[in-house]
Amino acid sequence: MSMAVVGMVAGMALGFAGYFGGFGAFLLVAALGAIGFVVGRFAEGDLEPGDFFRSRERGDRRR
What we know:
The protein is mainly α. Helices cover 73% and strands 0% of the residues.
């Protein structure tokens, strides 16, 4: 499935949640979708837990 179709389905799900359940349902569906995306990336091996917790090196800091 292409990313355009996935985006369209996600947009439709958020639209239905917003229309039928209100703003709270919209936020819940958006948050669960984001969590599902991250879990899916972990399952595919694209992300590792250390990616979120690595500290930046001093050379990367902005002043």
